[in-house]
Specification:
This protein is α/β, with parallel strands linked by helices. It has one domain: 3-Layer(aba) Sandwich (Rossmann fold). Helix content is about 40%, strand content about 10%. The protein has helices at about 5-15, 20-25, 35-45, 55-70, 95-105, and strands at about 5, 35, 75, 110, 120-125. Helix 1 crosses helix 3 (about 35-45). The two termini are about 15 Å apart.
């Protein structure tokens, strides 16, 4: 099954100093990876913030490198914020949006967050 990457998966796949880089790198072998604008924007926001402290140029280059090297597919964010959104609380709105988007496109949602609570979410081992 194709895997829509959430921000946690993107961060781990791209930044070699990420605590889950080795796990993510081993997992991606044989996977078909998919991105959407929301995940890309989240990656850029977190990467250029205090946690990763990358420049915007470096974060964009790193994202583009993954997309090119891994042959990442792309889908649009073609659900409205209210389409099927049944998040249990405000902290889960993005998780549930991405989960619903994954379901709409017949994908799994690849994540390192084992607490998303969405049926499309498949935690990366």
């Amino acid at each position: 099954m194709k895997q829509l990457l959430d921000v946690s998966a993107l961060l781990a796949l791209i930044w070699k100093d990420h605590e889950f880089f080795d796990r993510a790198d081993a997992w991606r072998t044989g996977q078909t990876l998919v991105l959407c604008p929301l995940a890309e924007l989240g990656f850029l926001r977190v990467s250029t913030g205090p946690a990763a402290n990358a420049s915007m140029a470096d974060a964009r280059r790193a994202l583009e490198k993954l997309k090119t090297e891994a042959g990442v597919e792309w889908i649009p964010d073609d659900l409205t914020a209210m389409d099927g959104l049944a998040a249990p609380n405000s902290k889960k709105t993005t998780d549930f949006y991405l989960g619903n988007l994954a379901q709409k496109h017949g994908l799994a949602l690849a994540t390192f967050d084992g607490r998303t609570g969405h049926p499309a979410a498949q935690p990366i081992p």
